[in-house]
């Protein structure tokens, strides 16, 4: 038997449970992996709560994009025993990695050259940040880059990528509690929303111009201020809506382009972009210029409810990872 995390109704972390299921058998184009660690993402909490862009199939829905483990059923390019990570290239309505032995599309695999905890914390965060900032945003040396939710896994990845390109990462966080950690992570400047005015701070730091590129996962009414903090003719990339779907910001004077970014649709479905992202991330891991920040590692699938509560506490800096014991 295999263990799987499932839920039968929408709700908070408490709806998650671990159940025994028959060991899944892969079909054409699929592969079974033994999961050793799972990387948690805000997308999964939203999927569980029913606020994600796609809805789960209930009852008995699984979930999860990121896992690190070992191939159990060989497929082309990945012999049995190959150490792998999974990338977020599938729908959670069809596949999920919250389990100890799971089936995923063979196309979601990437060879793993790091330990399982690191391997479960890399691909969604860094591909999201790379795809948006580099492929879509055309990131250049010297560009001021405004990053909301900067202490999240994607936010910290974006800080590292911005520094790698010689850009200037400006981190946004709700309170001053994470200021020092964000500066230590490489932020050139930190804006704390509880005590500072976002627009004034960003414009002052950038000599009155604003950020050429703004990367936002929060959404909601705060997007209006983000437009004001973005340079005239700049680009605002929206990749999430933790605070709700954003209004369409109308400020013709700033001429800001707003782009909705989806990792699967923009990066994973374009072979050239995906290939470039893999080379970039693997090179960064080898050289040490990309270092996934892991906030906390939980011990096993039985800790999944507590892990989701921690994920939604907003107290973390970096990724939340759950090991899978066998």
Automatic annotation (TrEMBL):
- Give the residue spans that cross the bilayer: none
InterPro entries noted in UniProt = ADH-like_C, ADH-like_N, ER, GroES-like_sf, NAD(P)-bd_dom_sf, Zn-ADH-like_protein
Q: Which residues belong to any copy of the Enoyl reductase (ER) domain?
A: 11-322
Which SMART domains does its entry note? PKS_ER (SM00829)
Name used for this protein in its record: NADPH:quinone reductase-like Zn-dependent oxidoreductase
Q: Which organism is it from?
A: Amycolatopsis viridis
């Amino acid at each position: 038997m295999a263990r799987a995390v499932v839920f039968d109704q929408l709700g908070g972390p408490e709806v998650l449970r671990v159940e025994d299921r028959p060991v899944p058998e892969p079909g054409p184009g699929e592969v079974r992996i033994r999961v050793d660690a799972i990387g948690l993402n805000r997308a999964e909490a939203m999927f569980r709560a029913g606020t994600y862009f796609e809805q789960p199939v209930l009852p008995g829905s699984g979930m999860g994009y990121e896992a690190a483990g070992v191939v159990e059923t060989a497929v082309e390019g990945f012999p049995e025993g190959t150490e792998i990570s999974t990338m977020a290239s599938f729908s959670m309505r069809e596949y999920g990695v919250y389990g100890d032995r799971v089936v995923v599309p063979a196309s979601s695999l990437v060879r793993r050259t790091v330990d399982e905890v690191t391997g479960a914390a890399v691909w969604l965060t860094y591909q999201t940040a790379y795809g948006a900032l580099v492929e879509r945003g055309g990131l250049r040396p010297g560009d001021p880059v405004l990053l909301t939710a900067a202490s999240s896994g994607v936010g910290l990845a974006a800080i590292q990528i911005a520094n790698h390109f010689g850009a200037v990462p400006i981190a946004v966080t709700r309170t001053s509690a994470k200021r020092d950690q964000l500066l230590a992570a490489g932020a050139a400047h930190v804006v704390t929303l509880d005590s500072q005015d976002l627009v004034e701070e960003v414009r002052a730091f950038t000599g009155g111009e604003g950020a050429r590129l703004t990367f936002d996962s929060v959404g909601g009414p705060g997007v209006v201020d983000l437009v004001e903090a973005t340079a005239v003719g700049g680009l605002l990339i929206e990749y999430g809506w933790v605070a709700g779907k954003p209004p369409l910001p109308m400020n013709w004077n700033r001429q800001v382009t707003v782009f909705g970014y989806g990792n699967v649709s923009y990066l994973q479905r374009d072979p050239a972009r995906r290939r470039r992202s893999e080379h970039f991330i693997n090179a960064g891991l080898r050289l040490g210029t990309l270092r996934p920040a892991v906030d906390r590692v939980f011990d096993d699938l039985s800790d999944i409810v507590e892990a989701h509560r921690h994920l939604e506490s907003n107290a973390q800096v970096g990724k939340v990872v759950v090991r899978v014991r066998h």
